[in-house]
């Protein structure tokens, strides 16, 4: 049995609020008495994509556990590589992949983490300067190749943007574009147990490509449903940060949501 912590949308900025909430989450994980296999972080690490924000985030997320992180729509690929990944230091055991071999730093930041009996693959769904998501051709090809390397190993595939509607109009308008391209890859690889995402700032579960699609809650805030709020962007800043804990037992994945108070 393997347990992963899944966090998302920490949005580190120049205020103590985001730092304090992220620190509380990491302290909670460190205090758990049972073993965690890894920490998965599905994007929006920095609020403004600044080098200083990534330097703070890197220190906060340094738990000593294997950690894999992908960018979100608030992130800047160049600054993310420079200040968070430090280029060759790819997230404590995670392997980075980019079709341009980094080049000018603007190519997608794709990551794979291989654990004992489990592979976690994170794709960069960010579009520089845009809120919605898209998996570039090189990312789609990279994902297909990575999944082909270990056909018998249970695998989680994740990214920042959810690949389907969640019933929250604000998020649904800026979800992953052309998700059928991702679906085609997943259907070729039956070892993919579930798809992970962030972006929505609310815990949610639905289906995509005949698999669970599991959205992590937001650390910095919680987005409310239309039934819960009439605001155009219904963010609740007062609810405590939340995390997901994914438990993989064989090919069965069970998800638990925890508030950090």
Automatic annotation (TrEMBL):
Pfam families: Metallophos (PF00149). Residues 3-203 form the Calcineurin-like phosphoesterase domain. The keyword Metal-binding applies. CDD domains: MPP_GpdQ. Gene3D superfamilies: 3.60.21.10. It comes from the Bacteria. The keyword Transmembrane helix does not apply. GO terms for molecular function: cyclic-nucleotide phosphodiesterase activity; metal ion binding. Keywords: Hydrolase, Iron, Metal-binding. Belongs to the cyclic nucleotide phosphodiesterase class-III family. PANTHER family: CYCLIC NUCLEOTIDE PHOSPHODIESTERASE CBUA0032-RELATED, PHOSPHOHYDROLASE. This is 3',5'-cyclic adenosine monophosphate phosphodiesterase CpdA. The lineage of its organism: Bacteria, Bacillati, Actinomycetota, Actinomycetes, Streptosporangiales.
